[in-house]
Amino acid sequence: MQSIQTIGIDLPLKVLVWQDAAGATWLSYNDPHWIAKRHGLGQEAESTIGAMSAALDALAKIAAGGP
pLDDT tens digits, residue range 36-64? Predict the structure, then answer.
């Protein structure tokens, strides 16, 4: 947010857990790489974006009952 303030519209990161009409449960979120591209963040943010993406992936796997 310090380098490009408009990214504040997408931060903090959010995860939506929802159930469809068939009863299946879903976990949805915007990929941090997409958010970075949307706001024009450069390579200087890549390590941070990678860490955010890895954390969300891990959370999704845990929520889905994976390893």
Answer: 999 999 899 999 999 999 999 999 999 88
Neighbour count for residue 4 (Cβ, 10 Å): 13
Contacting residues for 18 by C-beta, under 8 A, at least 6 apart: 25, 26, 28
Which of the four pLDDT bands, split at 50, 70 and 90, describes residue 5? very high
CB contact set of 17 (below 8 Å; sequence gap of 6+):
25, 26, 27, 28, 63
User: For residue 17, what are the domain limits?
Assistant: 5-63
SS3 47: helix
Structure tokens at 39: 């706001």
Q: What is the DSSP letter of 29?
A: -
* Number of domains the chain contains: 1
